[in-house]
Amino acid sequence: MQPATWHDGGVDDHALIAAARSGDRDAFGRLVERETAAVYRTCLRILGRPQDAEDVTQEAFVAAFRAIGGYRGEGSARAWLLRIAQRQAFRRLAQRRPEAELEAVGEARLADRSADPTQVVSAMESRDEIRDAVAALPEPYREVVSLRFFGDLSLFEVAEATGRPLGTVKTHLRRGLERLRPIMSADRADR
Amino acid sequence: MTHHPYGPDELDLHDEELDRVASRLEAYATDRTGRVPSGLQSRIQAAIDAEPDPEHGWWARVLAGPRSWHPAGQLGAAAAAVVIAAAGAFALAQVVEVLRPDVGATPPPSPVVAPSESPSPSDSPSPSPSPTASPSPTASPTVAPTPPVTPVPGTPVPTASDDDDDETPEPDETPEPSESDNSGPGGGGGDDDG
Questions:
Q1: Is B149:B137 a contact under the CB 8 Å cutoff?
Q2: Where are the alpha helices (DSSP H) in A71-184?
Q3: N or C: at which end does chain A have fewer Cβ atoms within 10 angstroms?
Q4: Position A42 pLDDT exceeds 80
Q5: Are A127 and A137 in contact (CB under 8 A)?
Q6: What angle do CA A100, A103, A104 make, to 5 degrees?
Q7: Residue B164's closest CA among B111, B87, B123, B86?
Q8: Averaged over A16-27, what is the pLDDT?
């Protein structure tokens, strides 16, 4: 009996990756279908702007396609893709011009004309604070926090994807949250 | 898409403030769950289609064989194979060279030493061992009782030195008559006939 492949309807990550690695572009296309939403949302949470999130999502998939030979099967395909995506997204965030942030405020006001501009700006500032606070975390805390909350991965998945013990990942998450605590205090959260 | 809600027991410790920070991060993530733009997948797919085949790990390339390599890599591999083959041949030649004297080079050194001792048992001054001793200046005085070092015409010394290039005679071998005899091995009397 031959082993099942992804063509048979199976959705096994490793079968998909193995097929893609051997040159099966359809298999990678299947990965794109399956994981675009997760990658896009992660990028959107890090970057805040849909246009940037789209661009980085595309760049992340292209980077993953180029690097597929280096994937050793550690963790799920999603976790592997999200690791690549979040790295690219933080890089893009660091390169973004300050003027782009002002443009983003203007775009949001145009998008929702019924909302009170003060509230819109306030909400955006709050989001920016969260994004900036996470982006300012040193590694490996930033990676663990972003994969856990922006990528919506379990700690076990994060441990698998990063190749670190689960206890170490928990420690990294705790330290990351501790560093965020002064910035994301409770009174600001109520705002 | 599986959602993994944050639980207070996730950190193996109870800290309300940290839980609050985590809840706020989670709320932010939930708030930023935008719909995936409709054309994004096809845009990604088009970008992937425009990409060349991905690079594999070096071990995969080695296992796949040279056909799957980049042309420059194939050229490099061919050059490396030639260099390795040449180095192997050179090393083999060196090994053969080292082993060869043990088998075939015994005659040349031994006659050089032997002639110096052989004159003593022989009574006649005829330099039977001189053929091999003649090349070395130290050997000739011991053999020839005559003062001059230069060989007397008619002595087999010149003939021996000529032969020394080709093959060394056996120590016990009696010297051939000189070529001035015109006799040769067959004792020819051709000149006598004329």
A1: yes
A2: 77-95, 98-111, 117-135, 141-145, 155-162, 166-180
A3: N
A4: yes
A5: no
A6: 90
A7: B111
A8: 84
Between the two ends of chain A, the Cα-to-Cα distance in Å is 61
pTM of the shown model: 0.58
**Interchain CB contact of B38 with A (< 8 Å):** no
| Min Cα separation B76/chain A (Å) | 22
Cα A85 from Cα A79, distance rounded (Å): 10
Q: Which of A89, A97, A91 is nearest to A42 (CA)?
A: A89
User: In CATH terms, is domain A9-189 a member of 3.40.50.2300?
Assistant: no
Contacts of A166 (CB under 8 A, 6+ apart): A155, A156, A159
CB contact under 8 A, A44 and B22: no
Residue A102's pLDDT is what? 53
Q: What is the gyration radius of the CA atoms in chain B, in angstroms?
A: 46
The interface residues of chain B toward chain A in range 88-127, judged by CB-CB distance below 8 A, are none
- For A66-120, how does the pLDDT look when each residue is reduced to its tens digit (9 = 90+)? 888 888 777 888 999 999 999 999 999 888 766 555 555 555 544 555 555 555 5
Are the Cβ atoms of A180 and B11 closer than 8 angstroms?
A: no
Per-residue confidence (pLDDT) for residue B109, from 0 to 100:
52
- For B58-92, b where at least 16 C-beta lie within 10 A, e where not — what string? eeebeeeeeeeeeeeeeeeeeeeeeeeeeeeeeee
ipTM > 0.85?
Answer: no
What does the domain layout of chain A look like in residue ranges?
A: 9-189
Structure tokens at B131: 């053929």
Exposed e or buried b per residue across B2-40, where buried means at least 16 C-beta atoms within 10 angstroms of its C-beta: eebebeeebbeeeeeebbbbbebbbebbeebeeebeeeb
Q: Residue B159 carries which DSSP code?
A: H
Cα–Cα distance, A100 to A41 (Å, whole number): 20
Using a CB–CB cutoff of 8 Å, tell me whether B62 touches chain A: no
Please report the pLDDT score of residue A76 as a whole number: 87
| Domain boundaries, given as residue ranges, for chain B | 70-95
* B20 contacts A152? CB cut-off 8 A: no
Sign of CA dihedral B77, B82, B86, B91: positive
